[in-house]
Structures are given as structure tokens and as C-alpha cells.
Structure to design on (166 residues):
């Protein structure tokens, strides 16, 4: 486990520092979550999957944009336009509890299609068996940015970031 790092993105703590992310799934109360700004957090996810790493990722999958029959998850237009997804919109949802940590999944792949980032997710949840790709989802980048809270990745993907840690 010493070769892996758990990462969060929240304004509640200073960026580039480690803290406890106080959510129910952090039942062991680890204080080793590395806190990164959203753009850096998301870039690590994208770079890691493009480099062949898989990622344990956790967040809120109880959302209207998660459509099991179509094997996709996205942020619907009635929620927030993608261009407005940023650290503040994410933070607002964490604090008003419209984003929570209700499921952990395995992010195993990445593809850019029609100008959008798409991530291949291996999911053990019941809804992942409703569509054509049994046990899998495709999460659009906006869903990952807004609704995923944490991830765990091999430290090799954080080499340029770890020296900045306070």
C-alpha cells in the first residue's frame, strides 16, 4: 500500500497538503488524502489512464445522468452546463450533500470521442448489468469532475506533484 496514494479535491483544506477526507467511506479515518486543485486532480486521472494505469475511484453514482440501460453517466443539461463545472460548483455539491460518496469503482480506460473525455468504468453495481456492456459503464468527463470525490493511484503518476506537498 505504500506505493499508492489516495487523492481528493476540496477547498476545505489547503491544496498540496494531506488531510482526512471526512466521508463515510473513509471509515479508517486516514489522514493521508492528498488534496489537489480540481484541474490537477482531473489531469492526473486522464494522464494515468492514458498511460495504462487503472484507478480506484469513488464518488456519487446515484444521479439522474447515470443511465444503466445505455451504459453511460454524464451530467444532464438541467443540472449544470459542462463549461461551468469547476472547483466551486463541485464544492457547492459536496457541502450541500448533493454529491456524496456512495460507491467505489474501478476506472480502467480512457478515450476521447466527439471532443469529450470518456472513461471506461468496471462497476459491480446492479445498474451496470442493465445495458449492452455487462459490468461496465462509460463515464463522461463532466461526471467524473463533478461527482467523483476521491481516487487511489500508484505514486508513479504523482512524481511531479509529491515534492510540492506541505
Amino acid at each position: 500500500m505504500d506505493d499508492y496514494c489516495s487523492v481528493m479535491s476540496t477547498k476545505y483544506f489547503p491544496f498540496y497538503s494531506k488531510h482526512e477526507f471526512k466521508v463515510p467511506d473513509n471509515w479508517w479515518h486516514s489522514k493521508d488524502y492528498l488534496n489537489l486543485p480540481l484541474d490537477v486532480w482531473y489531469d492526473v486521472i486522464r494522464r494515468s489512464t492514458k498511460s495504462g494505469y487503472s484507478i480506484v475511484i469513488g464518488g456519487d453514482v446515484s444521479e439522474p445522468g447515470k443511465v444503466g440501460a445505455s451504459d453511460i453517466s454524464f451530467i444532464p443539461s438541467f443540472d449544470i452546463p459542462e463549461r461551468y463545472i469547476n472547483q466551486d460548483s463541485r464544492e457547492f455539491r459536496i457541502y450541500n450533500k448533493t454529491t456524496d460518496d456512495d460507491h467505489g469503482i474501478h476506472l480502467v480506460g480512457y478515450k476521447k470521442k466527439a471532443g469529450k473525455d470518456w472513461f471506461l468504468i468496471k462497476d459491480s453495481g446492479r445498474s451496470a448489468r442493465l445495458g449492452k456492456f455487462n459490468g461496465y459503464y462509460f463515464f463522461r468527463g463532466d461526471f467524473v469532475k463533478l461527482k467523483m470525490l476521491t481516487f487511489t493511484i500508484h505514486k508513479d503518476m504523482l512524481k511531479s506533484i509529491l515534492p510540492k506537498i506541505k
Remarks:
- The longest strand covers residues 103-113.
- The chain has three helices and ten strands.
